[in-house]
């Protein structure tokens, strides 16, 4: 086997070293202090530095997301993968919880009966939840479109919408729709995104809320 020069990094130091390398590659680029941990965590999750350019934050989005977490919000994800990726241990310290309705048999049955996606019905279920709400949409543009409709109709008022679905059909359009609404948001413009990105943004906010940006 060919010998490759590897960095010797203790397991406990790998994440910190990764963040150092990300900071080095970002170079002299300047981000608002509350946004930088979000950008870095998304890059850490994806190894894709294009997120330094395509992440869009509405004014005060990070601050409002952190406030919602501290108030014991419910984080609603559009996939089980994003749900699994959210650090629920930190969230629960603030009295919050994470939920995903996608595997709910009632949601599946209603979606089939109406000819809609489960993601669409899941957003409607989310609108009935009490307390501060954060939507973390990383996969389904139909979820984001329905959320935007509910917001526009005054039937849902999330503290923050994380709009980062990935793909091709109505992905870009759903994100651009969100950008037209007066609701706090973090959006990955273009086709890129994913459940891992949605979870990474949630975790960046959670770590800041707990006083540990984990950079």
List the helices and strands and how they pair.
Elements: H1 14-26, H2 36-46, H3 51-54, E1 55-57, H4 61-70, E2 74-77, H5 80-85, H6 88-93, E3 97-99, H7 105-114, H8 118-126, E4 133-137, H9 141-152, E5 160-163, H10 171-179, E6 185-188, H11 195-209
Parallel strand pairs: 2-3, 2-4, 4-5, 5-6
Antiparallel strand pairs: 1-6
Helix pairs in contact: 1-2, 2-11, 4-11, 7-8, 8-9, 9-10
Note the main attributes of this structure.
alpha/beta, about 220 residues, six-stranded mixed β-sheet, Rossmann fold, about 50% helix, globular, 6 strands
Commentary on this structure:
It is a single chain. The chain is α/β, with parallel strands linked by helices. The chain has one domain (37-209): Cobalamin biosynthesis CobH/CbiC, precorrin-8X methylmutase (Rossmann fold), CATH 3.40.50. It is built from 11 helices and 6 strands. It has helices at 14-26, 36-46, 51-54, 61-70, 80-85, 88-93, 105-114, 118-126, 141-152, 171-179, 195-209; strands spanning 55-57, 74-77, 97-99, 133-137, 160-163, 185-188. A 6-stranded mixed β-sheet has the order 1-6-5-4-2-3, sandwiched between helices. Strand 5, helix 10 and strand 6 (185-188) form a beta-alpha-beta unit. Helix 2 (36-46) packs antiparallel against helix 11, helix 4 crosses helix 11 and helix 8 (118-126) runs parallel beside helix 9 (141-152). The protein is globular and about 60 Å long. 43% of the residues are buried. The model has no long low-confidence stretch (mean pLDDT 94).
